[in-house]
Amino acid sequence: MSSGQPPLRKNRDFTILWIGQTISTIGSRVSALAFPLLVLATTHSPARAGIVGFANGLPNLCFYLPAGALVDRWNRKRIMLVADGARALALGSIPVALAAHALTFPQIAVVAFVGGSFDVFFDVAESAALPQVVAKEQLPQAIAQNQARQQGAGIVSQPLGGFLFALGRGVPFLADVVSYVASFVSLLFVRPAFQELRERSTTRLRADVVEGIVWLWRERFLRTTLGLVAGTNFAHAALVIALIVRARNLGASSTLIGVMLGLFSAGALVGSVIAPWVQRNVRPSLLIIGSVWLWALLTYALFFVREPLVLGALCGLQAVVGPPWNVVLGSYRYRLVPDRLLGRTQSAGAVVTWGTIPLGSLAAGFLTQDLGARATFVVLGGIFTVVGIAAVSARVIRQASRLDAMMPGG
Known about the structure:
Layout: H1 12-43, H2 46-73, H3 76-99, H4 105-133, H5 139-167, H6 171-188, H7 205-218, H8 220-249, H9 254-281, H10 284-301, H11 308-319, H12 322-336, H13 342-353, H14 356-370, H15 373-393, H16 395-398, H17 403-406
């Protein structure tokens, strides 16, 4: 931190944004757990639960590229406000349909798709706006706090989601509606503009998208890590479905499943706390390669577990290394990418990294239905193993030094 720079905790606008998004994240995690529970309760089909997960993540493939270019053109705060309102309306339709005894599986899938679509625009806008709210030298700390927000919210929301679902199938979705309203109101009180002053773009949207893709492709380290993250995201998305199905097969209640997934978030929260220290002291090569092999070994170990809480504990160990990974890669991107390209480069990368998430959910639905959850753990462990071999084989990963040394002139 530069001399004379106030601590991040005294940044009023970041604090308001952080609190609003913490509430919103809790609501989103509550409904994210409720979606597969609702599908399994109404259809008894793991495959259909996977289809809903696919529908929720499909916008990652469809909309991230145009969203990035539009976020770099349009008012980012306005995009976030519209996204909050649209998500509240979509999620609110589920408890209304339940109350009218008119809920159908297609409606669940459509709501999941609509929510995921506006998630894309909100997430790209929020990420691109962060450097306008936080001083550049404080970005690693801000990213770490956002990671803590995500994981801390998970600790609260997973047990809460299971408990609320036990109270009523529509209750978790009502809670998410309230969280989006809170996010909307908090954004109104954040003072800075979420983008630099810039002239109105005269280029075509396609040209803007291509510029972001080309810029990202030329950065060898980022290009390589995108492939690794894509593989691990596929496996992690599938792992969530497999864990829920395995826990249900073991007789776990919805509340116990929430507690199990809360242990996963607890591990990630620990990772968020240690992330700034890791970013300063651990070589990216060791972090990236070691994380993937840890994920592989612990996923194989799930095959032998017969207690839901032990499943959650092992996944919590997996989750510890995720936030440091995200902080290192996110800090590098913020320091290297100019503001005018932040939305486009993030969206170009997200098509690859987040685009595998719906595929993982879809694959898990059919794998757990046809092979069973235990065999699915073995398959997913194999995917992590392949990614681990790729990481070890990539010279740019093996030779990666600390963040400062990765920068031009470092």
